[in-house]
Design a protein that fits this description.
- By secondary structure, the protein is an alpha/beta fold.
- The protein has 3 domains: about 140 residues, 3-Layer(bba) Sandwich (FAD/NAD(P)-binding domain), CATH 3.50.50; about 100 residues, FAD/NAD(P)-binding domain; about 110 residues, Enolase-like, domain 1.
- The chain is built from 15 helices and 22 strands.
- Strands 1, 2, 3, 4, 5, 6, 16 and 17 form an 8-stranded mixed beta sheet that branches.
- Strand 4 and strand 5 form a beta hairpin.
- Helix 1 packs parallel to helix 6, helix 3 runs antiparallel to helix 5 and helix 3 packs across helix 8.
- The model has no long low-confidence stretch (mean pLDDT about 95).
- Bound molecules: flavin-adenine dinucleotide and nicotinamide-adenine-dinucleotide.
- Nicotinamide-adenine-dinucleotide (NAD) binds next to helix 8, strand 9 and strand 18.
Length: about 450
Amino acid sequence: MSSTVDVVVIGMGPGGEALAGRLAEAGLRVVGADARLVGGECPYYGCVPSKMMIRAANSLAEARRVPELSGGSQVAPDFAPVAARIRAEATDNWDDQAAVDRFTAKGGRFVRGSGRITGPGTVRIGDEEFIATRAIVLNTGTDPAIPPISGLVGTPYWTNREAIAVETVPESLIVLGGGAIGLELAQVFARFGTRVSVVEVADRILPLEEPEASQVVAEVLIAEGLMVYTGVQAEAVVHDGTAFTVKTVRGELTAERLLVATGRTTDLAGLGLASIGLDTNRGFVATDEYLRIVDHVYAIGDVTGKGAFTHVSMYQAAIAARHILGEDGPGAEYHAVPRVTFTDPEVGAVGLTEVQARERGIDVRTATTAVPSSARGWIHQTGNEGVIKLVQDAERGVLVGATSVGPSGGEVLSALAVAVHAEVPVDRLRQMMYAYPTFHRGIEDALSRLA
Ligand SMILES: Cc1cc2nc3c(=O)[nH]c(=O)nc-3n(C[C@H](O)[C@H](O)[C@H](O)COP(=O)(O)OP(=O)(O)OC[C@H]3O[C@@H](n4cnc5c(N)ncnc54)[C@H](O)[C@@H]3O)c2cc1C
Ligand SMILES: NC(=O)c1ccc[n+]([C@@H]2O[C@H](COP(=O)([O-])OP(=O)(O)OC[C@H]3O[C@@H](n4cnc5c(N)ncnc54)[C@H](O)[C@@H]3O)[C@@H](O)[C@H]2O)c1
């Protein structure tokens, strides 16, 4: 059986859900397909529940700071309210009916199943074939990448999906991967009382961010009692029925649980891209500024390789939807992609790191300022660790990248994101006032050091 529609959206992550809803509201015949849950990774296994965990864990850390600031405190962590909140408020117990209803109320048709392009303009979802006269949109996101470590497959290791769904915290945990997922969750579990070891193969945690950021976060984690091993390759994993042992050249680690957070993977071959003549050997699909892979086929979100973040997916969704509807508007720009790793301190970053800027041949000038030495950092006292780093294109006199680590580092980032996005001249940034005593006032100090 085949049905003719205007648009088929394969995968309804945050961007796909928004785009499909927008096109349906505009009157197009839209079929949205998801193999799992409408909304994707972010609301069910990612951003939203992890940030609820982080909010709760940070409240424990703040309570533990009371003795240094304001008297006495006794902290008795209990994960039960967090698990309950994730079920009741974030994930509806991993039920997407509300999201499906939202989409169908806009006029869309939802099909639960795995979609695959079978040729130009045609998509198969289960037993059904759809002819899409206007567009096919891919928003299939990523799955956890499982490294080829001897003995790992077949053990009851966690990915982010199992870690988000826990009801009690383990006594001990090994986290493979010191990136965003690994560190956010490592700190949460440690603050709830789990003995946590992080094993990162690169020579520093958060290797994609500025080294200054990696150093601040590593120092905080170690001070909180986590073990952080960098430059360490896991060679084998053994699970004896109760505990995991991870073997490395530097010795063995043992823990009740193992979280694998070593990056993400896409299944482009499974999407049938070869049927329209596209290479599926790369980990992502190349898109033009309107998110087209080829005429009438669009891709948005993590699969585009432009930053695996919900805000990237949503930004691209709005541009692709406009283009499909034939509306005018600017194409996508990626010179100021913001990102925040919600460790405490938060690591906010935008645009290029110093190394990336140098690799592009930019005439780089950088400056850093330590948050504890700012007025606000000094007032804040305990929990004030952080750094602001600016990356300037000296020839053009604009910032091309910036990092703000610290309390509310993700909020401090907003001013820096505007500066990088709008290419505000550094001289002009120096002429403005920065409210006293805010954390973002550190930007003014860093700017003065660029001179
Ligand atoms: C633990 C964690 C924390 C995160 N925290 C943040 C954060 O704080 N901020 C942030 O910006 N980002 C965060 N992210 C990243 C964010 O979740 C993703 O970037 C975001 O979900 C956007 O992904 P997407 O739109 O590409 O699709 P996804 O959310 O990955 O969804 C893709 C959907 O496609 C479906 N699908 C796949 N293949 C098919 C197919 N063939 N047919 C039908 N359906 C298919 C899947 O079932 C899924 O529902 C986090 C991720 C994780 C794992
Ligand atoms: N706050 C946020 O916005 C947020 C939070 C979580 C995830 N995310 C998104 O999800 C993406 C995926 O997160 P992630 O943490 O899985 O990936 P990542 O790429 O950020 O980090 C993976 C880490 O694992 C390390 N690694 C790889 N193989 C390893 C191995 N065999 N042993 C030990 N370490 C190994 C890498 O060097 C890297 O540091 C992120 O890049 C980000 O885009 C965003």
